[in-house]
Each structure stands twice: as structure tokens, then as C-alpha cells.
């Protein structure tokens, strides 16, 4: 059996295990949430985000399904409302500061805060073996800065609770620092990003800014950036390192006001982003986000997951 077949077999076995795990209901003791628990999902009008919203609602939470386009967002929310689920819609474009501001004000006035934030909104403009950086600014702007701006704006609105509030960032294995086939070639930069003592918001910012400058002057091809879907991989690498950084920053919060933050890779999922290629359904791709956000009593923060297991950054 070749490596590909073995990987396929492992993947299918894990998908079966997870399908089984999903049939086991949470006990009353594990269920820290209720219909008053508010979960926000960005980019939830379709794909993985829609499924995350759907699964939260099936667990009985109140879901704020957001989308940058009002019409499609309302339609998506309507599908879930028709099924009797507790879902409300609000417009949210994660690259538009005024949209984020309006959203935060509305959340504050309507619910007084939130308990769960899933940063799912994302873009990618490459497919197959393409590696264009034509839309690099948009990719980094949405995937990294959009996620970061949402965290900065929504963190003060996260409600105190004994179970802690939760942030889940939808990322990708392509953003691994030490991927075997796809990583930053500059060893010194990689080590600085890896080392908790040197990791900072400025370092992440400087890394993506340097890349974007090199995209403009054409020197990016020879500068050791990730080889596959370079702009996208770097945007998710930034999301991953920011998750690690924020987990440290947030760990200072007193008991009762904790916020746990983690990221995960949904796998290669059949959505618009992949042209419906991939070997994972949106439902399976959403599973780890929901599992992580609802973890009963195991307080995990700053980690990277796939298929309900921790993986290396
Ligand atoms: P889709 O393209 O189906 O969904 C992406 C969603 O993000 C859409 O709802 C889109 O809205 C929204 N979005 C894009 N830009 C913005 C913005 N500025 N503000 C708000 N929403 C925005 O892709 P997926 O469901 O596959 O992707 C979801 C997440 O999963 C992304 O972060 C992606 O990077 C990640 N991911 C996906 C993988 C896959 O194999 N599919 C693998 C690894 C990670 P609109 O409909 O308006 O475009």
C-alpha cells in the first residue's frame, strides 16, 4: 500500500470514529451552555461557516449567523430558522472596520455580549498547482487582519463565566511553521515565530508586511516563503501564530473571566473555496470547531487541532 492509500485509510477511519463520537450526546453535567449562550460565526452564509452555525444551533445555542452580503446571509439564516433553530442574522464584513463596529454595537445592545466567537471568514484565489499572488493583499487582509480585528473588537464583549468564553479560528495545515512540504525557508524568522519569547504582534505584522512589499516589487519568489498557495499559507501561518500569542495574552485574565482561544484545520473540504473538490464534507469540516468551542471541562488554549486531535503548529 502506498503512502496516499495509507493516508486515505487513516482519514476514513478517523472520519468514522468522529461520526460515532458525534452520536454520543453531551450529558447535563457536561453541557455548560444553554439557549442564552451566544455564538457568533463569521462568513456563515455558506460552506464550513454555515455548518458551524447549524451545529451550534442544533446543540441549543443562540447563533448569530453573519455574512458580508445581507441578502445571502438572511437566506442562510432563514434555512436554519425554518428548521426551528435559534438563529439570527447580522451583516458583518471582517475587512470593513465600520461594519465590525456596527456589529459590535448591535451585539452589545441586543445581547449584552457573546460567549463564543468563530473566525471562519476566509478567501483563497488559487487552485491546483497555481500560485498567483495577484490577490495577496486581500488574502492576508481577510484571513489574518479580519480575524485579528474581530478578536480585538469582540474580546471586550466576551461575557464572564465559570466555563470561560471561547474563540476558535478556522485555519489550515498549510499555515504550519514546520510543514514538511510547505514552510518558511528563512530559519531565523521561523525560529523567532516559533519561540514564545520572541513572538509578538509586531513580528507577525512585520512578516506579512514584508511579504506584501515583496509581492509589490516582485522579489517574493526568491525569499523563502511557503511554496504552496504562498499568500494563503502565510495568512494562515499568521492566524496560527496570533492564536498562540493571544492565548498567552488572555491567560492573565482572572478566574471567571477566562477566554480560551484555539485554531484548527478543517481538512480539505468540498466547498466553493476548493471548487467542491476535497475529501471532507462541510459537516465534517465544521465538527472540530464546534467540538472545541463546546469542550466541557477541559480548558485548552493556544493549541492547533484537526479532527478533534491536537496537531503541531
Ligand atoms: P467558502 O468560500 O465556501 O466560504 C468562505 C466564507 O467566508 C464565505 O461565507 C465568504 O462570504 C466569507 N468571507 C470572505 N470574505 C469575507 C469578509 N471580508 N467578511 C465576511 N465574510 C467573508 O469557503 P470554506 O467554507 O471552505 O472556508 C471557510 C474557512 O475554512 C476559511 O477560513 C478557509 O480558509 C478555511 N479552510 C477551508 C478549507 C477547505 O478545504 N475548504 C481548508 C482549510 C481551511 P461570501 O459568500 O460573501 O464570499
Automatic annotation (TrEMBL):
Q: Please indicate if the UniProt record lists Isomerase as a keyword.
A: no
UniProt xrefs under InterPro entries: CBR1-like (IPR045313), NAD(P)-bd_dom_sf (IPR036291), SDR_fam (IPR002347)
Enzyme Commission numbers on file: 1.1.1.-
Q: Which residues form a coiled coil?
A: none
Keywords on this record? NADP, Oxidoreductase
A single GO molecular-function term is: oxidoreductase activity
Lineage: superkingdom: Eukaryota
Q: Mind telling me which CDD domains this protein's record contains?
A: carb_red_PTCR-like_SDR_c (cd05324)
Keyword DNA repair recorded: no
Q: Which family does it belong to?
A: Belongs to the short-chain dehydrogenases/reductases (SDR) family.
Question: Protein name, please?
Answer: Short-chain dehydrogenase/reductase
